Amino acid sequence: MKVISIIFTSILLFAISMGCGEDNTDPAKNGNGKNGGGKNDDTDTPVKPKVGQVLPDWSEGYLDIHAINTGRGESTLYIFPDGTTMLVDAASAIIAQDDPIPPPLPKPNATADPAQTIINYVSHFIEPANKDKLNYLHISHWDGDHVGSPTGQMHSSGKFDLFGITRVGASIPFETAIDRGHTYPRDITALASHRNVASYVKMTDWAKTEYSATREEFKAGALNQIALRKNPSKYSNFQIRNIAASGVVWTGSGTATRNTFPENVNDVLAANPAENIFSCAFHLKYGMFDYFSGGDMQYQGRSTHSWFDIEAPVAQVVSPVEVMKANHHATNNCNSDALLSKLKPHAVIAHVWRDVQPHPDTIKRMFDADADCQIFTTNLTDKNKGPLGMGEELSSKIKGTGGHIVVRVEPGGHRYSIYVLNDTNEKYIVSKIFGPYQCN
Predict the structure, then answer these.
(1) I want to staple 230 with a disulfide (CB 3.0 to 4.6 A). Which of 20, 82, 212, 438 is the partner?
(2) In CATH, what number is assigned to the domain containing residue 49?
(3) How far apart are CA 57 and CA 417, in angstroms?
(4) Domain that holds residue 298
């Protein structure tokens, strides 16, 4: 029995020494020219995240980017180095499980309300940074998988429908709402198909009276519209550059912009473009760390209308990044060669929620841009694994295929790690760890 005990103890100690299942990817092996040579240590981390444990709270000086998985679209929480907070989108599309292009089950369970899932997640993670308040509530564009769809449930004021973004705004106080505007190329609130936009506008009006919130239109080219609210002087190496919105794109010089859509609004209306190409896009920079977010930007239909390819003018002014949020859930009409060849992301976060996402051609373009690209998806349906050609090699092609995905950048913006959190409950347990990666 003593021999057996010694053997068991040796095995246990060996398992602990191997990191208990952590995938601490060596950046020297997995990085490219932009992300190589980092060391796998925790000298800068006050509380080191561990597999099987709750992700430690954000700390002063860190930048957190949380891809929240509701199974119903896209939602991202940002906690900036000084504790300023921003939520971009509120994934709450209404769709049946028997839809021809079915979604995964809602998260964390089949009966979960997506808006409440977001509220619970945001409330948990912003508490140490900003107590119970969001500094920014940002909408990338007006599609239901980003703002939600009307449910018929009215707010107690009786003035607006409760769903996605309006439930979040009515539950968590915010200072500033930012969106692409609702009057171009027509007044969207007047359309029956966009009751969600009308309710959102009414919610922001209510919030203005309730707690002095404000609402602004996203300004392409601006460098300070989304800024640190708590201690900007301490983190002068942090900034967000607005790149594009509603066809207006930054030129790359100062705050100058150009309109890439037809000057005549009637020509825009006649072409009837998808809402996706109106998406807001921005570039976040913290020290050496760079990140790009472009909503649902796409290029579908560009052979008929060249300006439908909104990624093309954006590609002219962007530069390499460590991490990119995949445009339009990494489906088949986005993340062009032109854009990816400029961004060259070392890691891509794809908010996947339909079984046509991500698309094999899109994944190929990502690897063409960086052969060592680390791809993470919030979901991956069984039906889509075959077309992706993954099979047993799935883990070697896509690092994370389900869960909340958190990018945590260390103070100063020199290194970052990526954590996959269990999304089947609301305990926020770490299931996988990647990094740290060195920024260049």
Answers:
(1) 82
(2) 3.60.15.10
(3) 14
(4) 25-438
